[in-house]
Write a structure and sequence with these properties.
The protein is of the alpha/beta class. It has helices spanning 3-16, 19-31, 37-56, 62-79, 101-116, 130-140, 155-168, 182-185, 189-192, 202-211; strands at residues 92-97, 120-126, 144-148, 175-179, 197-199. The protein folds into 2 domains: 3-82, Orthogonal Bundle (Methyltransferase, Methionine Synthase (B12-binding Domains), Chain A, domain 1); 92-211, Cobalamin-binding domain (Rossmann fold), CATH 3.40.50. Helices cover 51% and strands 11% of the residues. Strands 2-1-3-4-5 form a 5-stranded parallel sheet, with helices on both faces.
Protein backbone atom coordinates (compact mmCIF):
# COMPACT_ATOMS: atom_id res chain seq x y z
CA UNK A 1 0.00 0.00 0.00
CA UNK A 2 1.32 3.47 -0.89
CA UNK A 3 2.49 5.79 1.87
CA UNK A 4 -0.17 8.41 1.02
CA UNK A 5 -2.93 5.80 1.31
CA UNK A 6 -1.57 4.60 4.66
CA UNK A 7 -1.45 8.18 5.90
CA UNK A 8 -5.03 8.85 4.78
CA UNK A 9 -6.22 5.70 6.56
CA UNK A 10 -4.43 6.67 9.77
CA UNK A 11 -5.73 10.26 9.74
CA UNK A 12 -9.31 9.07 9.18
CA UNK A 13 -9.10 7.08 12.42
CA UNK A 14 -7.29 9.91 14.21
CA UNK A 15 -9.83 12.64 13.61
CA UNK A 16 -12.68 10.23 14.35
CA UNK A 17 -11.12 9.58 17.75
CA UNK A 18 -10.76 5.80 17.22
CA UNK A 19 -7.99 5.12 19.72
CA UNK A 20 -7.90 1.33 19.41
CA UNK A 21 -7.93 1.46 15.60
CA UNK A 22 -5.03 3.91 15.60
CA UNK A 23 -2.99 1.74 17.96
CA UNK A 24 -3.63 -1.37 15.87
CA UNK A 25 -2.64 0.49 12.72
CA UNK A 26 0.65 1.72 14.20
CA UNK A 27 1.42 -1.70 15.65
CA UNK A 28 1.11 -3.20 12.17
CA UNK A 29 3.52 -0.58 10.78
CA UNK A 30 6.03 -1.20 13.56
CA UNK A 31 6.00 -4.92 12.83
CA UNK A 32 6.98 -4.17 9.24
CA UNK A 33 9.99 -1.96 9.98
CA UNK A 34 13.25 -2.28 11.87
CA UNK A 35 13.57 1.46 12.38
CA UNK A 36 10.84 2.92 14.58
CA UNK A 37 12.06 6.45 13.80
CA UNK A 38 10.55 5.93 10.34
CA UNK A 39 7.11 5.77 12.01
CA UNK A 40 7.81 9.17 13.52
CA UNK A 41 9.04 10.74 10.29
CA UNK A 42 6.69 9.08 7.79
CA UNK A 43 3.47 8.67 9.77
CA UNK A 44 3.13 10.60 13.03
CA UNK A 45 4.81 13.79 11.83
CA UNK A 46 2.93 14.15 8.52
CA UNK A 47 -0.30 13.22 10.32
CA UNK A 48 0.35 16.01 12.83
CA UNK A 49 0.92 18.49 9.99
CA UNK A 50 -2.20 17.33 8.13
CA UNK A 51 -4.42 17.61 11.21
CA UNK A 52 -3.08 21.12 11.89
CA UNK A 53 -3.78 22.16 8.31
CA UNK A 54 -7.31 20.72 8.42
CA UNK A 55 -8.03 22.56 11.65
CA UNK A 56 -6.65 25.92 10.49
CA UNK A 57 -8.73 25.67 7.30
CA UNK A 58 -11.90 24.90 9.34
CA UNK A 59 -12.29 21.44 7.80
CA UNK A 60 -12.32 19.80 11.22
CA UNK A 61 -13.44 21.23 14.53
CA UNK A 62 -11.56 21.66 17.80
CA UNK A 63 -12.86 18.37 19.20
CA UNK A 64 -11.49 16.35 16.28
CA UNK A 65 -8.15 18.17 16.41
CA UNK A 66 -7.88 17.60 20.15
CA UNK A 67 -8.68 13.87 19.92
CA UNK A 68 -6.20 13.38 17.07
CA UNK A 69 -3.45 15.18 18.96
CA UNK A 70 -3.93 13.23 22.18
CA UNK A 71 -4.05 9.88 20.38
CA UNK A 72 -0.84 10.74 18.52
CA UNK A 73 0.87 11.74 21.72
CA UNK A 74 -0.12 8.52 23.49
CA UNK A 75 1.28 6.54 20.55
CA UNK A 76 4.52 8.54 20.64
CA UNK A 77 4.81 7.77 24.36
CA UNK A 78 4.72 4.05 23.56
CA UNK A 79 7.00 4.21 20.51
CA UNK A 80 9.73 6.12 22.32
CA UNK A 81 10.81 3.01 24.22
CA UNK A 82 11.32 1.14 20.93
CA UNK A 83 13.60 3.71 19.31
CA UNK A 84 17.13 2.45 18.68
CA UNK A 85 19.39 4.52 20.93
CA UNK A 86 22.73 5.56 19.46
CA UNK A 87 25.79 6.15 21.61
CA UNK A 88 25.97 9.54 23.37
CA UNK A 89 27.50 12.15 21.08
CA UNK A 90 28.43 14.64 23.80
CA UNK A 91 25.92 17.24 22.61
CA UNK A 92 23.05 18.76 24.56
CA UNK A 93 19.78 20.35 23.47
CA UNK A 94 17.15 22.33 25.37
CA UNK A 95 13.67 22.22 23.80
CA UNK A 96 10.80 24.62 24.51
CA UNK A 97 7.52 25.14 22.69
CA UNK A 98 4.26 27.05 22.56
CA UNK A 99 1.86 26.25 25.44
CA UNK A 100 -0.62 24.20 23.40
CA UNK A 101 -1.19 20.45 23.05
CA UNK A 102 -0.34 20.19 19.29
CA UNK A 103 2.93 22.06 19.81
CA UNK A 104 3.76 19.88 22.82
CA UNK A 105 3.28 16.83 20.58
CA UNK A 106 5.73 18.06 17.94
CA UNK A 107 8.29 19.16 20.51
CA UNK A 108 8.00 15.80 22.30
CA UNK A 109 8.66 13.93 19.05
CA UNK A 110 11.71 16.13 18.44
CA UNK A 111 12.91 15.28 21.96
CA UNK A 112 12.49 11.55 21.34
CA UNK A 113 14.29 11.64 18.02
CA UNK A 114 17.20 13.81 19.22
CA UNK A 115 17.66 11.52 22.22
CA UNK A 116 17.73 8.46 19.96
CA UNK A 117 20.55 10.12 17.99
CA UNK A 118 22.67 10.34 21.14
CA UNK A 119 21.83 13.87 22.29
CA UNK A 120 21.40 14.77 25.95
CA UNK A 121 17.86 16.20 25.79
CA UNK A 122 16.06 18.54 28.17
CA UNK A 123 12.41 18.99 27.18
CA UNK A 124 10.81 21.92 29.02
CA UNK A 125 7.53 22.14 27.11
CA UNK A 126 5.39 25.26 26.94
CA UNK A 127 4.34 28.04 29.26
CA UNK A 128 7.74 28.56 30.91
CA UNK A 129 8.75 32.21 31.52
CA UNK A 130 11.62 33.59 29.48
CA UNK A 131 13.74 34.34 32.54
CA UNK A 132 13.58 30.69 33.61
CA UNK A 133 14.58 29.53 30.11
CA UNK A 134 17.47 31.99 30.30
CA UNK A 135 18.53 30.48 33.62
CA UNK A 136 18.37 26.93 32.24
CA UNK A 137 20.43 27.93 29.20
CA UNK A 138 23.10 29.18 31.58
CA UNK A 139 22.97 26.17 33.89
CA UNK A 140 22.78 23.41 31.28
CA UNK A 141 24.89 25.16 28.62
CA UNK A 142 23.27 23.30 25.70
CA UNK A 143 24.68 23.36 22.19
CA UNK A 144 21.22 24.11 20.81
CA UNK A 145 18.10 25.83 22.12
CA UNK A 146 15.16 24.64 20.00
CA UNK A 147 12.04 26.82 20.05
CA UNK A 148 9.23 24.77 18.51
CA UNK A 149 5.79 25.52 17.12
CA UNK A 150 5.44 29.26 17.75
CA UNK A 151 2.06 30.78 16.93
CA UNK A 152 1.77 34.29 15.43
CA UNK A 153 0.91 35.84 18.78
CA UNK A 154 4.07 34.35 20.26
CA UNK A 155 6.57 35.83 17.78
CA UNK A 156 7.34 38.96 19.87
CA UNK A 157 8.00 36.69 22.85
CA UNK A 158 10.46 34.61 20.82
CA UNK A 159 12.26 37.76 19.67
CA UNK A 160 12.39 38.98 23.26
CA UNK A 161 13.81 35.64 24.45
CA UNK A 162 16.52 35.63 21.77
CA UNK A 163 17.45 39.25 22.53
CA UNK A 164 17.48 38.49 26.26
CA UNK A 165 19.83 35.52 25.82
CA UNK A 166 22.16 37.45 23.53
CA UNK A 167 22.03 40.61 25.61
CA UNK A 168 22.89 38.87 28.88
CA UNK A 169 25.59 36.84 27.12
CA UNK A 170 24.63 33.57 28.77
CA UNK A 171 26.12 30.58 26.93
CA UNK A 172 27.33 32.72 23.99
CA UNK A 173 28.31 29.77 21.74
CA UNK A 174 24.80 28.24 21.89
CA UNK A 175 22.84 28.21 18.61
CA UNK A 176 19.14 29.05 18.71
CA UNK A 177 16.97 27.06 16.29
CA UNK A 178 13.30 27.69 15.52
CA UNK A 179 10.99 25.17 13.88
CA UNK A 180 7.39 24.74 12.72
CA UNK A 181 4.38 26.86 13.61
CA UNK A 182 4.34 30.31 12.08
CA UNK A 183 8.00 29.99 11.06
CA UNK A 184 7.02 27.29 8.53
CA UNK A 185 4.36 29.57 7.06
CA UNK A 186 6.22 32.90 6.93
CA UNK A 187 9.38 32.81 4.83
CA UNK A 188 12.32 34.51 6.47
CA UNK A 189 10.56 35.14 9.79
CA UNK A 190 13.21 33.11 11.60
CA UNK A 191 15.79 35.69 10.58
CA UNK A 192 13.64 38.53 11.88
CA UNK A 193 13.69 37.05 15.39
CA UNK A 194 17.50 36.71 15.13
CA UNK A 195 17.56 32.90 15.32
CA UNK A 196 20.67 31.10 14.09
CA UNK A 197 18.99 28.05 12.50
CA UNK A 198 15.62 27.08 11.03
CA UNK A 199 14.17 23.65 10.25
CA UNK A 200 10.71 22.74 8.95
CA UNK A 201 10.68 19.23 10.39
CA UNK A 202 12.52 17.06 12.89
CA UNK A 203 14.01 15.20 9.92
CA UNK A 204 15.68 18.48 8.88
CA UNK A 205 16.41 19.70 12.41
CA UNK A 206 18.57 16.77 13.54
CA UNK A 207 21.25 16.82 10.79
CA UNK A 208 21.22 20.63 10.81
CA UNK A 209 21.90 20.67 14.55
CA UNK A 210 24.58 18.00 14.25
CA UNK A 211 26.45 19.95 11.59
CA UNK A 212 26.12 23.36 13.26
CA UNK A 213 29.36 24.92 14.43
CA UNK A 214 29.36 26.66 17.81
CA UNK A 215 28.08 30.18 17.49
CA UNK A 216 30.81 32.79 17.36
CA UNK A 217 30.54 34.93 20.51
CA UNK A 218 29.91 38.60 19.89
CA UNK A 219 33.10 40.64 20.39
CA UNK A 220 33.25 42.44 23.73
CA UNK A 221 32.98 46.20 23.78
CA UNK A 222 36.46 47.69 24.20
CA UNK A 223 36.98 50.71 26.42
CA UNK A 224 34.57 52.75 28.45
CA UNK A 225 31.57 54.19 26.71
CA UNK A 226 31.96 57.77 25.66
CA UNK A 227 30.06 60.32 27.64
CA UNK A 228 27.58 62.34 25.72
CA UNK A 229 28.42 66.02 25.80
CA UNK A 230 25.66 68.13 27.15
CA UNK A 231 24.67 70.87 24.82
CA UNK A 232 24.80 74.26 26.43
CA UNK A 233 21.66 76.24 26.37
CA UNK A 234 22.08 79.58 24.63
CA UNK A 235 22.26 82.57 27.02
CA UNK A 236 19.09 84.45 27.71
CA UNK A 237 18.68 87.61 25.72
CA UNK A 238 19.38 90.64 27.87
CA UNK A 239 17.66 93.84 27.04
CA UNK A 240 19.57 96.94 27.99
CA UNK A 241 17.60 100.08 28.39
CA UNK A 242 19.20 103.18 26.97
CA UNK A 243 18.83 106.60 28.46
Amino acid sequence: MQASTLLDEFITSLIAGHRAACRRFVKEQVEQTRDVSAIYHDLLWPAMERVDKLYRSDRINAAAESMATRISRSIADQLQMSLVQQAPNGKRILIVCAPCEPEELGAQMCSDLFEARGWDVYFVGGGVPNDEILTLAGQLRPNILLIFGTQPVGVPGVRHLVDLIRGVGVNPTMNIMVSCGVFNRADGLWKEVNADLFARTAKQAIPLAEKAEPRAPEPPKIGAPKKRRRRRRPPLLTVVEQD
